[in-house]
Amino acid sequence: MIIRNIQVFLPDKSFHKGCIVTKDDKIERIYTQKEEEGSGEMDDPNLIEDAFSIWKGKPGFREKQDIIDGRGAYAIPGLIDLHFHGCRGDDFCDGSMEAIKRIAEYEASVGVTAIAPATMTLPVSKLVSILRTSAEYRREVCDEGIARLVGINMEGPFISSAKRGAQDAKYIIPCDASVCDRFLEASGGLVKFIGIAPEASGDSISFIRRVKDRVHVALAHTDADYETALAAFRAGADHLVHMYNAMPPFGHRAPGVIGAALDSPKVMCEIICDGIHVHPSAIRAAFRMMGEERMILISDSMRGTGMPDGRYTLGGQEVDVRGRRATLVRDGSLAGSVTNLMDCLRTAVREAGISLETAVACATRNPAEALGILDHYGTLEEGKMADVVLLDRNLGLQGVIVRGRMRVGEK
């Protein structure tokens, strides 16, 4: 496949005119040229001729079908959502391979080509079952043309009741390395993050030191003060779950978890840019404080995403969805989002004023790096997965190429 007449997003976070050649599920070649003043041409004819030469001798080459004219579109890597719960009526914690596949189909349709869904706080036995099903899905289900399951983000059960948000308090337990071992074994290596509230367990530092070489330890749903959070980061925790949400506020006398993350340069920070969870000014402040290389856009979407307003469930609790807002019926607390990651990227750009280049990197390269999959995903480079999203100048979705297979349009 040749994708021509595009603005290619390169690893240095710049757009250049060019074309992309894919072969099977990988990027074969990328041709770019610097824009020449006054030139209306998007492709250097010599570069395109070189691209054609790769494909003309291929059996079954069909010029019309195998050449995509991007018509000047932005070509960016497929998005990677490393924290979301579900969409289109399904939840990852439903624990079925059918639900995972439907979730993966929807995500691909909106430009998300790799996923690491999040669990909720549930009984340990239920979580183990969900993880085993996920491992089986990864082994047995054909994911051609849909988002690939590349990890799992465990948001519970080692969290704080005081900051539980939409998590069910009755299933919260202290940090336990033996339970974590069960999770890692059941998932067959898919669990990439395990969330904890360091203040909620007697010896969270020992827990972090024991598991940090096998899984990223994240601070999540925590009421920790600055000193406790900083000790956790110094012990090896290196990830912050949905910055600002389900944690103490950042204050000038009590900087809390956010202040500790600010003073810990290796910590990556998730942020929900759905227009509901975090004010645009606070989004801008987060990027300025932490630096764009540490920020990861997430959706935190739940099963009501892509569905009509109404009643849904999250972690066994009833949720009321109205417009862009999802709240618990019991107390009105925010209960995840109903916004996919592509819409979060648009919100970051349009409402928070984050540059397109930065927003794209924070929804592609940064999550890939955090997941440890940057060798294969997250940037448009030769030899990497042919996951490409085409956006028009208004950030409307023009097309999605998933591992070299074209699909068009949003559902």
Q: Which helices and strands, and how do they pair?
A:
Layout: E1 2-9, E2 15-23, E3 26-33, H1 45-56, H2 63-66, E4 67-77, E5 79-81, E6 86-87, E7 90-91, H3 97-109, E8 112-115, E9 118-119, H4 124-140, E10 148-149, E11 152-158, H5 177-187, E12 191-196, H6 204-211, E13 216-219, H7 226-235, E14 239-240, H8 256-262, E15 268-272, H9 280-290, E16 295-298, E17 310-314, E18 317-322, E19 325-328, E20 334-337, H10 341-350, H11 356-363, H12 365-371, E21 388-391, E22 397-402, E23 405-407
Parallel strand pairs: 1-4, 5-8, 8-10, 9-11, 11-12, 12-13, 13-14, 14-15, 15-16
Antiparallel strand pairs: 1-2, 2-3, 4-21, 6-7, 17-18, 18-19, 19-20, 21-22, 22-23
Helix pairs in contact: 4-5, 7-8, 10-11
Please summarize what this structure is.
By secondary structure, this protein is of the alpha/beta class.
Describe what you observe in this structure.
The protein is an alpha/beta fold and 411 residues long. It folds into two domains: 2-76 and 382-407, Roll (Urease, subunit C, domain 1); 79-371, Metal-dependent hydrolases (TIM Barrel). The protein is built from twelve helices and 23 strands. The protein has helices at 45-56, 63-66, 97-109, 124-140, 177-187, 204-211, 226-235, 256-262, 280-290, 341-350, 356-363, 365-371; strands spanning 2-9, 15-23, 26-33, 67-77, 79-81, 86-87, 90-91, 112-115, 118-119, 148-149, 152-158, 191-196, 216-219, 239-240, 268-272, 295-298, 310-314, 317-322, 325-328, 334-337, 388-391, 397-402, 405-407. The strands form five sheets. A seven-stranded mixed beta sheet has the order 3-2-1-4-21-22-23. The chain has a seven-stranded parallel beta sheet with strand order 9-11-12-13-14-15-16, sandwiched between helices. A four-stranded antiparallel beta sheet has the order 17-18-19-20, with no helix packed on it. α9 links the parallel β15 (268-272) and β16 (295-298). α4 runs parallel beside α5 (177-187), α7 (226-235) packs across α8 (256-262) and α10 (341-350) runs antiparallel to α11. Residues 35-42 have low confidence and may be disordered.
